[in-house]
Design goal:
Structural class: alpha+beta
Distance between the termini: 28 Å
CATH class of the largest domain: Alpha Beta
Largest sheet: 7 strands, mixed
CATH superfamily of the largest domain: FAD/NAD(P)-binding domain
Shape: elongated
Bound molecules: flavin-adenine dinucleotide
Number of helices: 14
Strand content: 25-35%
Helix content: 25-40%
CATH topology of the largest domain: FAD/NAD(P)-binding domain
Length: 404
């Protein structure tokens, strides 16, 4: 016979702690334990947001918020009506943690330290008598007729209700598969594109405010800021593509072509403007008369890539050169040859199949009294605080469902 608890939560990460605290707070008569394999929990919270923890995003309309989830968009709409950004802010505020909004909508603790979130969780867990058992790696899950038996590295446990909040952990996915769940195979999401190209080789750090980018031979398209890096391209325009295209780009083995429209105009209207510049700026060298609000260093590279040399003036340019320049500005093709991790923020697409989770309760549709929260489900988001919001929402709804 293992040690008996009313509720066991496997995984002491973001979703695990949030679920445990809310269950214990709402149900002081239940015994609640977290089994965490690490010697500490909340390790991802600690390193998240560059050590500041981007807790959520200042988007308060559920139908807008869901647009940030390449997997989970449809399923999270209902749950966000129950618990979303405003509730997250209030939850933390009620427990003494104030959050602030940055210009781009990301929300952080006022202290600018993820430790504030960790301290809050640890003290709330203690206050509500959540037993946090570290160094307890779960090895097997047995779903019996009326309860669960769990084997950990430090002995057996039994519980009436089980919450799995183990993030993107392949071993737990395998255990879930063994007890009847379908696991969508994991692939990386949120990555930057590796590009070796003369046009961007010498200009790392250049930012373009708003571009449009397409992956050729697919329907993938996105827009937003672009950052040229030492190894290729990054920033929201690229990260959104990597998240929404996670499965498709994996199939292409991260070898594909993208077409960048640096100025978000079509080829013809750009060409017309270049012809006007030819008349208006006839005596100026083309390289030195940056247009379209582009960074000077990028403009220069695109001009040179259009067979226009450094000394050529607008008056000297011919039709072919202007067409080439218009093409570089509006339809520049780059070969992507691989991917790199974005600020170590590896997020994984994949996990428990969305069809097998009841999103009103976050309970398994296959196994009664089994619940999921966080990244263990096939839900993931673009960068900006949305991944944590998914963890808080799922975990909160689990706590409410267990109440019933
Ligand atoms: C570097 C980095 C920065 C990030 N920054 C942000 C950010 O600022 N904002 C944002 O929204 N998202 C961010 N993310 C994503 C975010 O961290 C995750 O989406 C979130 O942590 C998922 O929460 P979770 O509880 O589902 O999983 P996790 O937080 O990964 O927790 C899972 C827990 O389960 C435990 N576990 C696993 N297997 C077992 C087992 N067999 N037995 C017992 N315990 C087990 C793990 O040790 C872990 O503690 C970041 C991710 C990374 C890697």
């Amino acid at each position: 016979m293992g040690k008996r608890k009313d509720i066991i939560i496997i995984g002491g990460g973001a979703a695990g702690f949030f679920a445990a605290i809310n269950i214990a707070e709402q149900h002081p008569n239940l015994s609640v334990a977290i089994l965490e394999r690490g010697k500490e929990g909340l390790q991802k919270v600690k390193i998240s947001g560059g050590g500041r923890c981007n807790v959520t995003h200042a988007e308060f309309i559920p139908s807008e918020l869901v647009l940030n989830y390449p997997r989970g968009e449809k399923e999270l709409l209902g749950p966000f009506h129950t618990f979303m950004t405003g509730d997250t802010i209030a939850w933390f505020e009620e427990r003494g943690v104030e959050l602030k909004i940055e210009d781009d909508g990301r929300m952080f603790p006022m202290s600018n330290s993820s430790q504030t979130i960790i301290d809050c969780f640890l003290s709330e867990a203690k206050k509500h008598h959540v037993e946090v058992l570290y160094n307890h790696s779960v090895k097997s899950i047995d779903a019996r007729e009326n309860d669960f038996s769990i084997e950990s590295s430090q002995g057996e446990f039994e519980c009436n209700k089980l919450v799995v909040a183990t993030g993107s952990n392949p071993k737990i996915w395998k255990l879930l598969e063994d007890i009847g769940h379908t696991i969508v195979q994991p692939v990386p999401s949120l990555f930057t594109f590796d590009i070796k190209d003369k046009r961007i080789k010498d200009i790392p750090g250049v930012v373009v405010k708003n571009i449009e980018v397409k992956v050729l031979s697919t329907n993938l398209v996105s827009e937003g800021p672009l950052l040229i890096t030492h190894v290729g391209m990054s920033a929201p325009a690229i990260l959104k593509l990597s998240a929404f295209g996670a499965v498709e780009l994996a199939k292409l083995n991260y070898n594909f072509k993208i077409e960048v429209n640096f100025i978000k105009q079509d080829f013809e209207s750009c060409l017309d403007q270049l012809k006007d510049f030819k008349l208006g700026f006839a005596k100026k060298t083309i390289v030195n008369s940056t247009q379209f609000d582009l960074p000077k260093r990028l403009w220069k590279q695109l001009v040179l890539a259009s067979n226009i040399n450094e000394t050529e003036r607008w008056a000297d340019s011919n039709k072919q050169q202007l067409e080439d320049l218009s093409r570089q500005l509006t339809e520049a093709v780059f070969q992507v040859t691989g991917k790199s991790t974005f600020k170590e923020e590896f997020v994984t697409a994949g996990g428990v199949h969305l069809k097998e989770v009841n999103f009103k309760t976050f309970e398994s549709k296959r196994i009664p009294n089994l619940y999921f929260a966080g990244e263990v489900i096939n839900v993931d988001a673009v960068t900006g605080g949305f991944n944590f919001q998914n963890a808080w929402t799922g975990a909160y709804i689990v706590s409410q469902s267990i109440n019933r």
